[in-house]
Amino acid sequence: MPDKKLFAIFGNPVKHSRSPLMHNHVFKKLDFNACYTRIHLEEGSRLRETFFAQKLQGANVTVPHKEAAYKACDEVRGFAKEIGVVNTLINENGRLIGYNTDADGFLFAIETFADIRKVLIIGAGGTAKALSMRLKAEGLEVDVLNRSEGNLAYFKDCGFETYTWDSCPIKTYDLIVNTTSAGLSDDALPAPLELLEALLKHSSYAADAIYGKLTPFLQRCKKMNITYKDGADMLLGQGVLANDYFTNKAFTLHEIQDVMKESFSF
Ligand code: NDP
């Protein structure tokens, strides 16, 4: 029997992550000899040395280390290369290979929303980059709103309309997405209440990248009768694609998805 492969998720915070549950369930049910743990990492600059010191075969990376993960790689493949954001790492014969599965995971999540053409992304971090670039590639019109100016430079350079809280006009969007970590481990809204309510009033759908709780943002959407979803489907979508890399395509995406979905009821 080949040696057990070890996988992990890096983040800070990371104790909330459901990824170990999801991937371990797939490994067990599909009889793949591996186990998946979580690693609390303070310094993104220590990601690479920690990955190899722990003898990992692969990993996921969550907030706030996805851009550090990009820098840690020997080679970055696919969409991750375009955006400089990596959430999945594979040890390929001692070389660290990076991918991004968040963006396609999000497309999977919003499949049930009809006629989405104009989207407002709130936040300007790694997830915002992945989602906005992927949605733009699908031909959607995307604006970006962030609390601070600094991280908006990337989006401006890529041709997006960008706003801070003070400069944001009230426009009509089909979908508003919270990609900030506001609400993850606090009760914060991703933008001032007055601005959010004015924007949501003109919006049909809302989504939050955060999963497992009704964030203050989603509580507001619920109150305003807007169709919304939390980040669970995105989590499933990105997890299925990551597991496909971890298991080196030993199973079909459908097999992984069916089994991984079971873990959401635990
Ligand atoms: P980053 O750290 O890269 O970016 C965070 C962004 O949130 C920044 O733009 C930051 O603004 C903004 N922000 C942070 N706190 C607040 C606040 N209190 N109010 C307003 N804005 C704030 O994070 P990621 O993009 O990696 O992740 C963001 C969230 O998405 C996390 O909660 C993560 O768990 C979730 N996620 C979920 C996934 C899923 O599968 N469901 C997949 C990926 C991510 P500034 O630029 O001013 O610092």
Task: Explain the overall architecture.
- The structure is a single chain.
- The protein has 266 residues and is an alpha/beta fold.
- It folds into 2 domains: 5-100 and 235-265, Leucine Dehydrogenase, chain A, domain 1 (Rossmann fold, 3-Layer(aba) Sandwich); 104-230, Rossmann fold.
- 36% of the residues lie in helices and 21% in strands.
- The protein is built from 11 helices and 12 strands.
- A 6-stranded mixed β-sheet has the order 2-1-3-5-6-4, sandwiched between helices.
- It is globular.
- The protein binds NADPH dihydro-nicotinamide-adenine-dinucleotide phosphate.
- NADPH dihydro-nicotinamide-adenine-dinucleotide phosphate binds next to helix 5, helix 6 and helix 10.
- NADPH dihydro-nicotinamide-adenine-dinucleotide phosphate binds at residues 62-64, 66, 102, 105, 123-128, 146-148, 151, 179-182, 184, 188, 190, 209-211, 231, 234-235, 238.
List strands and helices in order, with pairings.
Layout: E1 5-11, H1 19-29, E2 34-40, H2 47-53, E3 58-61, H3 66-72, E4 75-76, H4 79-83, E5 88-92, E6 95-99, H5 102-109, E7 118-122, H6 126-137, E8 141-146, H7 153-157, E9 161-164, E10 175-178, H8 193-200, E11 205-208, H9 216-223, E12 227-229, H10 232-246, H11 253-262
Parallel strand pairs: 1-2, 1-3, 4-6, 7-8, 7-10, 8-9, 10-11, 11-12
Antiparallel strand pairs: 3-5, 5-6
Helix pairs in contact: 1-10, 1-11, 5-6, 5-10, 10-11
The protein binds NADPH dihydro-nicotinamide-adenine-dinucleotide phosphate.
